[in-house]
Design brief:
By secondary structure, the chain is α+β, with helices and mostly antiparallel strands. It has an 8-stranded mixed sheet, sandwiched between helices. The chain has a 5-stranded mixed β-barrel with strand order 1-2-3-5-4. The longest helix is centred in the N-terminal third of the chain and has 23 residues. The two termini are 31 Å apart. Bound molecules: adenosine-5'-triphosphate and manganese (II) ion. The site of adenosine-5'-triphosphate (ATP) has 15 residues, from strand 11, strand 15, strand 16 and helix 14.
Length: 478
């Protein structure tokens, strides 16, 4: 009977009153042929198990190696040693699975994050990744809870689509046609009419367009699913496969949209801080140790927990794109020619510009609104100035863009005009345009990149360390 086991997380909340319990987990270390540190994944804390000398066969003790899996039954007693309040005095120890310590790649020492990525199948067994994935879980749970409390409907938008929602990034083609000698059209192009869906299809880059269809009937929806971008961005904040949360609200303008996004981000951070205190404290210490390697000026002013707390206690700064460009042009960094990329009205801000605004100028999350229409997608609502659109990006310290959103263009004539200007084929999006034909309403929404949010909360500097099995250019092991 496996379900008689008690999880270590639960056990540690109890008082050590000589209760008999069964625990199961993996050996982290075995000292003096007597003390086993057992971890079962429920918490970063190991349970100390005492195998009294002389009580167990040598043959059994030899098999208690690093990462072997054990079932241990015994009595919980107050610990004599320091560092833990209780320990388990073992009565029986059963080896569930042996582990060849010679071949096991994780040793009880510090491994680099790069090395751990190469053994991503085992990195869950480290303190760092145990903490990261428990925090990731909490954030995901909090997201559903937030929207559920607000009466949003969780909409599952398709993973395979025939539309390119944004022209946002390169797409992954989905096809069952043979790679060699595919059927061709008269003109010699691949004939996707012969393909599985009778047309060319791709993995989705965003669920937004379908989300708008849901919102303009259900009122308020959100999606939370995988999205795919074949962009060749080898950066610490881009994945080829990432998870996105996309709320979409009818009867909502840009300001409502910003308010919701800010409330949402604070809610999920607060949830993680309340439910993952131990893991976040561990990650904060990890980050502080990592930053000790850096020169003073590159270190963060605030520790991880102080940073999160600061975000909770302060309003996000709100500036227009035009104001943001002015700030950059007035900045010492600009005057000293510290920016690699050009700064002038109309640019798509580069990461160095975003980071300057957030980390140097405002020192807190910033919502930038009203971007030039040329650098934004066709569906964003045109402002009365005729130059800008009702867009908003949220920039976070250390990460850059974490949210991209907008009020959507609900006026059919304006939308059609913009699509034509941007060469977006209106015939293919007939279904999208129908929302504007039959009872159109002001509506708005945004997309939050989940892994960037996990980065922000855990302090992991590379996005590859926030998802179990990262997909990046040239890498899809596991
Ligand atoms: P960026 O300029 O950073 O590439 P984007 O403008 O392409 O972002 P959007 O298309 O607005 O981003 O997507 C919404 C959100 O999804 C972004 O704010 C970001 O949090 C996240 N995101 C976008 N691309 C990626 C990616 N390749 N990997 C991880 N998250 C991403
Ligand atoms: Mn991008």
């Amino acid at each position: 009977m496996f379900n008689k086991r008690i999880k270590v997380r639960e056990l540690l909340t109890r008082e050590p009153y000589h209760e008999e319990v069964t625990v199961m987990g993996w050996v982290r270390s075995f000292r003096n042929n007597q003390f086993i540190a057992l971890n079962d994944g429920s918490t970063n804390s190991n349970l100390q198990i005492v195998a009294e000398l002389g009580r167990f066969d040598d043959a059994l003790l030899k098999r208690i190696t690093i990462s072997a899996s054990l079932k241990v039954t015994g009595t919980i007693i107050p610990s004599l040693g320091k560092g833990q309040k209780m320990e388990l005095k073992a009565d029986t120890i059963t080896i569930l699975g042996d582990s060849d310590a010679e071949r096991y790649p994780l040793q009880p020492k510090k491994h680099s994050l790069e090395f751990l990525r190469e053994i991503a199948h085992l990195r869950f067994r480290t303190n760092t990744f145990g903490a990261v994935f428990r925090v990731r879980h909490s954030l995901a749970f909090a997201i559903h809870r937030f929207f559920n409390e607000k009466g949003f409907v969780y909409l599952h938008t398709p993973v395979i689509t025939a539309s390119d929602a944004e022209g946002a990034g390169e797409m992954f083609r989905v096809t069952t046609l043979p790679p060699l000698n595919p059927p061709l059209t008269k003109e010699g192009a691949v004939d996707y009419k012969e393909d599985f869906f009778g047309r060319a299809t791709n993995l989705t880059v965003s669920g937004q367009l379908e989300g708008e269809l849901g919102a303009t009937a259900l009122g308020e929806i959100y999606t939370f699913g995988p999205t795919f971008r074949a962009e060749n961005s080898n950066t610490p904040r881009h994945l080829a496969e990432f998870w996105m949360i996309e709320p979409e609200m009818a009867f909502c303008d840009l300001e409502d949209n910003m308010n919701l996004a800010e409330e949402f981000i604070k809610y999920i951070i607060r949830y993680a801080m309340e439910h993952n205190r131990e893991d976040l404290a561990f990650l904060a210490q990890r980050l502080a140790d990592e930053e000790k390697q850096l020169p003073q000026e590159k270190r963060s002013e605030l520790g991880l927990l102080e940073k999160l707390d600061f975000v909770l206690r302060n309003d996000f700064e709100r500036v227009t794109y035009t104001q943001a460009i002015d700030i950059l042009l007035q900045s010492p960094a600009y005057k000293k020619k510290k920016f690699q990329y050009e700064v002038k009205w109309g640019i798509d801000m580069q990461s160095e510009h975003e980071r300057y605004l957030v980390e140097k100028h405002f020192k807190k999350p910033v919502i930038v609104t009203d971007y030039p229409q040329e650098i934004k997608a066709f569906y964003m609502r045109r402002n009365d100035d005729g130059k800008t659109v009702a867009a908003m990006d949220i920039l976070a310290p250390g990460i850059g863009e974490i949210v991209g959103g907008s009020q959507r263009e609900e006026r059919l004539d304006m939308l059609l005009q913009r699509m034509e200007e941007m060469h977006v084929p209106a015939e293919e999006l007939w279904w999208y345009l129908d929302t504007r034909r039959f009872g159109t309403v002001p509506h708005a929404g945004f997309g939050l990149g989940f892994e960037r949010m996990v980065q922000f909360v855990t302090g992991m500097s590379n996005i590859r360390d926030t998802i179990a099995f990262p997909r990046t250019p040239g890498s899809a092991e596991f």
